[in-house]
What we know:
Strand order of the largest sheet: 1-2-3
Order of helices and strands: HEHEHEEEHH
Helix content: 25-40%
Structural class: alpha/beta
Distance between the termini: 43 Å
Shape: globular
Radius of gyration: 16 Å
Low-confidence stretches: 23-33
Amino acid sequence: xxxxxxxxxxxxxxxxxxxxxxxxxxxxxxxxxxxxxxxxxxxxxxxxxxxxxxxxxxxxxxxxxxxxxxxxxxxxxxxxxxxxxxxxxxxxxxxxxxxxxxxxxxxxxxxxxxxxxxxxxxxxxxxxxxxxxxxxxxxxxxxxxxxxxx
Length: 150
């Protein structure tokens, strides 16, 4: 199947945090994973991007470590006033981190990666997918909380 066929099967976009990054000292401007810069300009760029995307398909946005949200887990959703154009779209869901949802008939439990990043500091080197599977096996989403992860 080509890219067009794969795109036709997309039923929701879930953005897992760090959409607005802190400014990098070496670059002068930070760039988050969703392509937004830092601060107010970054929020405006993210707002424009999400407004366009939410017009085409449902979008769920979780906050991450570098986003303007509470630091400790569970993080509260980004406030709609930070993304006024996108928030007016019916297709945008501002969700907490972690977040549980159903996508295409599949139940998902999502987080922005902070538990895995913290866990990597304390276990023998493994890939993130293996750590994610381990947390599912342990039935504990954030095993280092609250000792080393807020």
